[in-house]
Amino acid sequence: MWCCVSSPATQRTNTVTTPVAPATAVVLPAGSRTPARRRQRKWAIVRWASPLVLLALWQVGSAIGLISQDVLPAPSLIAEAGLELIRNGQLADALGVSGWRVVQGLLLGGLIGIGLGTAVGLSRWTEATVDPPMQMLRALPHLGLIPLFILWFGIGELPKVLLVALGVSFPLYLNTYSAIRQVDPKLFETADVLGFSFRQRFSHIILPSAAPQVLVGLRQSLAIAWLTLIVAEQINADKGIGYLINNARDFLRIDIIIFGLVVYALLGITTDAIVRALERRALRYRS
Hints:
mainly alpha
């Protein structure tokens, strides 16, 4: 049997070298990203347009007499009332007083809520002794305590600040407590291996892990703070946005009343946006 074996020289001769094209990066055309951006712009326009359309319908309904001015004044009249308050300086004074009440209540309630939430989250004994009374107090409608607060603390600034602090403390307490209990146990095991002290555990493990949920509690607390202030300033207030609303009620100025409510809403949205910006900055490491 004959077997044909080609020599190495023959193999080199018969080998055909195919030229390989240089690798080129695949670049998507710029137009392929356009539909997604167009959809985002479309929904952004819709979100902004829907309130404007409602305002336009409201204005048209008031102009043709479909909506009574004694029940709901036109947006233009409400805007004129707001300009009047801005020109005479009443709005600036009221914003300063109401804002300071919220800041005081937020600081006091934040210290109580975050402090107790941290203590309960770190200690089983504290949980057994502190958490039951906190849950009982949380079940009470804090705005229903206004008559008691007036009897206990009078009709000055103190009951208003304490009401705001009471409403603010519970969301921060619950979120802080829950955030600490949900920290990954493996992180504590790693800390034991590395020999971390309590201070190092708190600053390097507990605080970064709990920060996102605590900031969510802060956003909830701000909304409750403004809601509580709306009610607190309706009772025996001689300054603030609530005083403007009460004074307008006595003079049947519905336009000023609605403008005051709009100011409350804008303050709530603004403070929430500030906390969201703080949240993005503080938690930028997560992205």
